[in-house]
Design brief:
The chain is of the alpha/beta class. It contains 8 helices and 15 strands. The strands form 4 sheets. Strands 3-2-1-6-10 form a 5-stranded mixed beta sheet, with helices on both faces. The chain has a 5-stranded mixed beta sheet with strand order 13-12-11-14-15, with helices on both faces. It has a 3-stranded antiparallel beta sheet with strand order 7-9-8.
Length: 313
């Protein structure tokens, strides 16, 4: 399968395999945003850990059941690479390299002038043209063997994986539909999940940075109450905001807006704490309930899948 994070068009179903559940959504329309269905099947702990499939047999059994129950057998499918094995990096390239030569150029440079934290990367690349003084590109990469494990699981469940995407792009797609982001904004997207959060930063609609942060140490210390988790999110997000301002922008530009995805038991309190910490507006990714034919209310657990489903719209 030729993986592509930024392009490729196909009529496919949407399935995400996440640590806590397998999820499937089907769009009814993009404008207004509505779903035909939003379905999920829980995964027991220990099947997926730190982004890796550690119990392929158990996953296969549950995935088979889900595929049959949802009636999507033998369909082409799009899926997400796990956050823990995704890197987004801005990097320069020589001026004489044409845009259609970029992927070949960086493939040759891999391991010499370009270093990624995977010994078997699969990647996509797009020109980043905002800095006129230097030709730059955005590289989005994952670990091929890990992505292949997800692909294999889908194939064994009688699906045909054709498109891989990454969660920050999926969420930004949904967020842009909800908020109509302007190019001048520096947007921090905080995606709070089952045992981790993933922070990504966008400017001029380009993804410039992402990092996945595990709650494991916090929970291991018994600090898994809401206040402790919120404080942890505040602290880690502030560190990454400072990194973006001072390391990536020499102190000249910083975050102008924070968007949060996930489920929050007391959103207004969480929002107030982050706004006090950052001094900028903090908003939920989804501002209005998304209707679905099979659910009275679609929860924030489906945001990643909905954004993924919007990929080819």
């Amino acid at each position: 399968m030729a993986l592509s994070f930024l392009s490729r068009k196909a009529r496919v179903v949407t399935v995400t395999i996440e640590e806590d559940a397998i999820r499937h959504v089907e769009l009814k329309s993009a404008s207004p945003l509505a779903l035909n269905c939003a379905e999920e099947m829980d995964l027991p702990e220990g099947i997926i850990e730190d982004g890796k499939i550690v119990d392929a047999e158990a996953l296969g059994s549950i995935l088979d059941k889900a595929v049959n129950q949802w009636g999507i057998s033998r369909k082409s499918v799009r899926f997400l690479a796990p956050d823990e094995f995704v890197i987004i990096r801005k990097t320069p390239y020589p001026e004489d390299i044409e845009p259609d030569e970029l992927k070949g150029h960086f493939f040759i440079e891999m391991g010499s002038t370009l270093y990624l934290p995977f010994d078997d990367p699969v990647f996509d690349v797009v020109p980043h043209t905002t800095n006129k003084e230097e030709t730059e590109a955005i590289i989005i990469a994952s670990k091929e063997s890990v992505v292949r494990d997800y692909e294999r699981a889908l194939e064994e469940a009688k699906l045909k994986p054709v498109v891989a995407d990454v969660a920050p792009l999926a969420l930004y797609r949904l967020g842009h539909l909800q908020h109509d982001f302007t190019p001048d904004e520096h947007i921090m997207l905080i995606d709070v999940q089952f045992t981790k959060m993933t922070v990504s930063i966008f400017h001029e609609h380009y993804p410039l940075f992402m990092r996945s942060v595990d709650f494991e140490l916090l929970m291991g210390a018994g600090q898994n109450d809401e206040d402790a988790i919120t404080s942890f999110i505040e602290t880690e997000a502030e560190k990454l905001a400072n990194f973006y301002r001072y390391n990536m922008n020499n102190g000249d530009q910083g975050i102008t807006c924070v968007i949060c995805s996930g489920e929050f038991s007391d959103w207004l309190r969480f929002q107030s704490r982050l706004e006090s910490r950052f001094g900028v507006s903090v908003m939920p990714l989804v501002t209005q309930d998304i209707p679905s034919n099979n659910a009275a209310r679609v929860t924030g657990r489906f945001n990643r899948a909905i954004g993924l489903a919007l990929k080819e719209v």
